[in-house]
TrEMBL record:
GO terms for biological process: methylation. Residues 99-201 form the Methyltransferase small domain. It catalyses: L-glutaminyl-[peptide chain release factor] + S-adenosyl-L-methionine = N(5)-methyl-L-glutaminyl-[peptide chain release factor] + S-adenosyl-L-homocysteine + H(+). S-adenosyl-L-methionine binds at residues 122-126, 145, 189. Its EC number is 2.1.1.297. GO terms for molecular function: nucleic acid binding; peptide chain release factor N(5)-glutamine methyltransferase activity. Methylates the class 1 translation termination release factors RF1/PrfA and RF2/PrfB on the glutamine residue of the universally conserved GGQ motif. Keywords: Methyltransferase, S-adenosyl-L-methionine, Transferase. Belongs to the protein N5-glutamine methyltransferase family. PrmC subfamily. It comes from the Bacteria. This is Release factor glutamine methyltransferase.
Length: 286
């Protein structure tokens, strides 16, 4: 069997009604390229290349995992984010393209500062902190998480990209190193889904604590964030965080309730939905 035939067979399997894949051709290409240890471009330019039996057996096994709904990123243990490759496993959330907007907006804020101090809450794979460090080499970055296993992944990615970042195991600001510390920028992709949203099949393999607040609701968790974060911002500091599709009005009400003298601005994702909120300590409503 050659590459073209293997891809055709896999795509046919992943197109079946009971299959969980929404992108069968792409998934097939990614998995076959992974088995070959090469790029998808190689598959396009060598469609007649034979697929060795051992590779074919492995490829079919991976396709069966994909058919069951196991995310391709977990199968290959790799996901691209902001032009960089990151190691991922089921202990961390898979980086999403929408989260790149959070990085872009944070970079715009930080680039105005000579040596910005940045804190990331809930780092997961470390992709946000590492992407920021790549473009802000003089920044001082601390990244936290409530999962020891997630921090293992984050540290592995930081070593892989050779970026010095301080990782702390803590819930929000409870770590002694953070209790009295202030930052120019605090950034977070928090667990903002409801338990119902997090229970959907498409998210079944991802860590629940990265999707929905533990023993809480998104509204209560956002309220906690908004009451604690400002105490750790410098005078002109900014707090940027990702939100869900329908949470803009919730954030507006919470800011009005808990931070009446602060201003909040929203930035849309590629589909036009509010995806990133930015609260600035120096912008005061009149």
């Amino acid at each position: 069997m050659n590459i073209r035939d293997a891809l055709f067979e896999a795509q046919k399997i992943l197109t079946r009604r009971r299959c969980k894949s929404s992108t069968p051709l792409l998934d097939s290409e990614v998995l076959l390229a992974f088995v070959f240890g090469t790029s998808r471009e190689y598959l396009y330019t060598h469609p007649e290349a034979p697929v060795a039996h051992t590779r074919l057996v492995r490829f079919r096994h991976l396709i069966q995992q994909g058919m069951k709904g196991v995310p391709i990123a977990y199968i290959t243990e790799s996901k691209e984010f902001f032009g960089m490759k990151f190691y991922v496993n089921p202990h961390v959330l898979i980086p999403r393209p929408d989260t790149e907007i959070l990085v872009e907006r944070t970079l715009k804020k930080a680039q105005k500062l000579r040596r910005p101090s940045i804190l990331e809450i809930g780092t997961g794979s470390g992709c946000i902190a590492i992407a920021l460090k790549k473009y802000l080499p003089h920044a001082s970055i601390i990244a936290t998480d409530i999962s020891h296993r997630a921090l293992v992944v984050a540290r592995r990615n930081a070593r892989r990209h050779n970026f010095p970042i301080t990782f702390l195991y803590t819930n929000l600001f409870s770590h002694t190193a953070l209790r009295s510390k202030k930052f120019d920028i605090i950034v977070s992709n928090p667990p903002y889904l409801s338990k119902h949203e997090a229970s959907k099949q498409a998210l079944a393999y991802e860590p629940r604590t990265a999707l929905t607040p533990f023993r809480s609701t998104p509204r209560k968790f956002f309220a906690k964030l908004l009451t604690e974060v400002p105490q750790h911002l410098n005078q002109d500091g900014s707090f940027l965080f990702e939100i869900g599709n329908s949470q803009k009005s919730i954030i507006v009400r919470l800011v009005s309730t808990y931070l009446p003298r602060y201003s909040v601005k929203f930035f849309d994702d590629l589909s036009g939905s509010p995806r990133v909120a930015c609260i600035q300590k120096s912008l005061i409503r009149t």
